[in-house]
Amino acid sequence: MKAAGIVAEYDPFHAGHAWQIARARELGAQAVAVCMSADVTQRGGAALLPPAVRARAALAAGADLVLALPNPYACLSAEGFAAAGVALLSAVPKLDTLVFGAETPDAGALLAAARALLRPGFSEELAARLGGGRPFAAARAEAAEALCPGAGALLEGANNNLGVEYCKALLRQGSRLAPLPLARVGAAHGQPGPGEGGFASASHLRALWEERGPEALAPYVPAAALALYREAAGAGLDLDRRAFEAAVLSRLRAMTPAGLAKTRGTGEGLEHLLAGAVRRSGSLEGLYAAMKSKRYAHARLRRYVLDAALGYTSELPPLPPYLQVLGASGRGLELLRGAALPADASLARLEKKSAACAAAAAAHAAAADLAALCRRVPQPCGQSYTQKPALP
Q: Does the reported pTM lie above 0.85?
């Protein structure tokens, strides 16, 4: 391995993320590039802190290049999220390895499971189990197990599941990147409280911040990151969750079922389910509960709600068409020489490269503007166009 790529959310950046970058260095990476979710996240919410703050935290911990995973792709399912991240990192010519965490750090096993999910017979196996009323995650694991013994148990791990999606994307896209899973250390995904070694999950850190502010994160984040978080909190840049809920719900209440039907991922009357739930709900959690059914996973509902509020449709480019630089060292900028996609720190310049770039940039800015409004001190529109790249 000479240069490693990482797909991440860093919501917020913590000691486990710093360990992963350092471990990639120990294993031979002379440079590390990160593709990071920008303003919204894969769980269908807004990030605790703006992308500029999180990018600086990653650079301070040893990353050389931080690229934005544009907002329309950051809030996709695990499959879409992984495909977008792999596409962007594969466009950086000097990267040769994709590093990610996994409960089962066995590249061969993860690739075998990915191949099973790509086999022609997988769709039939999955449909048969869904037809029997099984929840999607369980049906998917059972279908994978039928084609690849051991894959079902492997897919029970949240990080394994995402790792398999990375491997699927690598195979589908014919990427030169070699997968390198690292054993996840410390707390499990979503685990409340710190795990072994004192590492805590990002979800636990977000809860701590909401309860007691950035000082509560001190035992679990690098010192440089904590300094950035204190500064951001002092400026009111952390997320106001109640403001985010009100902003999303107000947009949804102004929409009709016909308008909701244009949302990507609409099917089987999902737009009518959302329209009815919006009229009865005064909070996002109440909205998700009102939409809950055996057919739809909670995570899918969260993403669908955010997509609807942002006006995201199936007409968006299927993969990100540009590389937006959030921050870089001199070595990081060298990684971009000969990039297979337009690369720039300026979204204004990137959107002029093609129609696809314009569409993706506009969708990205829509989410950035929503998130900016929902900071504890609301921020103006257009910051995704004016934000300067972070330089260590």
A: yes
